Amino acid sequence: MPEIKSTAKRSNRVITLGSGHIYVNPYSGKIPSTYSEIAAFCSEERRLGYIKGGASLEYSQETYEEKDDFGIVRKIITTSETAILKFGLITWNGETLKTLIDRCQTTEMPKSGNDADSSKVRVTKIGGGGNAQGDYYLAVFHHVDKIDGDVYVAIIGRNTAGATLSFTMDAGTLIEPEFTAIPSDEDGTLILMFEEIKDADEAN
Question: What span, in angstroms and rounded, lies between the C-alpha atoms of 137 and 130?
Fold first, then answer.
């Protein structure tokens, strides 16, 4: 069998392989609409943490079929849809948990209780209606591929999986959030994807 080679970045002959990076920021009412905007969004200060085990984007739908008694005329319509971005975080702290858990607040205070002491401790409160934030987030996963072209996936949503912290001797504590998307525009768009491609001159 001949080797399959792509003739342009992100063609339908490209094998997508590898992990990427996750960037999250409170949603301000605007989602990136151009490549330059989404690339600029992926800055170090918006990095949620470093990923272990890759990421997955799941889109599912429920449909309804109507047909006549003889099965000659049929119509299928989508009645509901769901999009979820899943990934594993191997690095995290209290501020990360605040992003992942709606009912969560963090504060920093002097470690010794003395304001003159420069060392601090972060206190994280989890659970309780009084700690609710009500925020949604713009989450962008950046798949890096210098050969065939990068892919950016953006959703607006919130982690709906909670958080499990497992402290063990033989493995790092991995948090596995699931960001469930909400519509981002008047069309009800749940997922926005950007793919790097070459123009016709570059591809030849």
Answer: 20
The CATH number assigned to the domain holding 134 equals 2.30.110
Q: What single DSSP character describes residue 35? A: H
Give the pLDDT of residue 147: 85
| CA 194 – CA 120 distance, rounded (Å) | 41
Asked if residue 109 belongs to a domain, the reply is yes
Q: State the pTM of this model.
A: 0.86
Q: Which two tokens stand for residue 23?
A: 């960037």
Q: Which residues pair with 182 in a beta bridge?
A: 156
Given a contact cutoff of 8 angstroms between Cβ atoms, the answer to whether 157 and 137 are in contact is yes
Contact (CB, 8 A) for 175 and 164: yes
pLDDT at 1: 43
Decide if 14 contacts 6 (C-beta within 8 A).
yes
* Pairing of β 120-126 and β 137-143: unpaired
Range of the domain at 100: 20-65+74-198
User: Quick check: helix, strand or coil at residue 134?
Assistant: coil
